[in-house]
Amino acid sequence: MFTQDRLEYQPIPLPHRHHMSDEEMVTAAHDFYSFMQRRHTVRDYSSREVPREIIERCILAAGTAPSGANHQPWHFVAISNPEHKHRIRLAAEEEEKGFYEGGASEEWLRALEPVGTNQEKPHLDIAPWLIVIFAQRYGQFADGQKFKNYYVPESVGIATGFLIAALHHAGLASLTHTPNPMKFLNGLCDRPDSEKPVMILAVGHPSEDATVPSVAKIKKPLDEILSVRE
Q: Where in the chain does DSSP place strands (E)?
């Protein structure tokens, strides 16, 4: 980690190695793809509680993500308090109201129609946890001296992907929510102006009558997302 007393390159032996045959690696790749195919973005949540330890471990997993200069420019605020979640819902819905009532282009709104979303966000109340993700524009040493962070959007995006995969691995569903603008989250989460809110993740168990939009199951085939040069 980047600290004032660790400013020199100090290599250590690779701590972990995977000893797998090609066949084992192929099987592992297929298994992981099948597992991730069972991940769904869910808006309908059960009231079943989720232990705090699960959220903490998944966030620790997110914190293992690679980052620019290893600065780890992210902060996660996990919220289970019902009153706090409700304040976030009210503020998010206020921003969403502006978005759906003139802030968004007609093209953007048409693109959202198959997803079935609107300005009402009851899941922000019902999901047992909300995780608000912040990107840190710069960091500070213990003495208050500031230092610049690098590749912040890329680093936080990778960590967020790790987090979503970890939550799925733990048997939980999640929903990415990005009200625009999101500055209200700094105040509601007691985070400094140097941090930019990136998204809200609603996390929990799907309700018994949960649905997903059919369009969400349509994924681009391999030949549209991959080019190979051998």
A: 74-79, 129-136, 138-140, 146-148, 173-177, 195-204
User: What confidence score (pLDDT) does residue 140 get?
Assistant: 85
> What CATH number did the domain enclosing 150 receive?
3.40.109.10
Query: What's the structural domain count of the chain?
Result: 1
pLDDT of residue 102: 85
Q: How far is CA 187 from the centre of its chain?
A: 20
Does residue 26 lie within any of the structural domains? no
- Asked whether residue 22 is assigned to any structural domain, the reply reads no
Helix axis angle for 152-169 and 52-62, nearest 10°, is 140
- Cα(6)–Cα(128) distance, integer angstroms: 39
Residue 152 lies in a domain: yes
pTM metric for this prediction = 0.94
Is 11 inside any structural domain? Answer: no
- The residue with tokens 């109201």 is 97
Q: In what order do the strands lie in the sheet with 173-177?
A: 74-79, 129-136, 195-204, 173-177
pLDDT at 1: 61
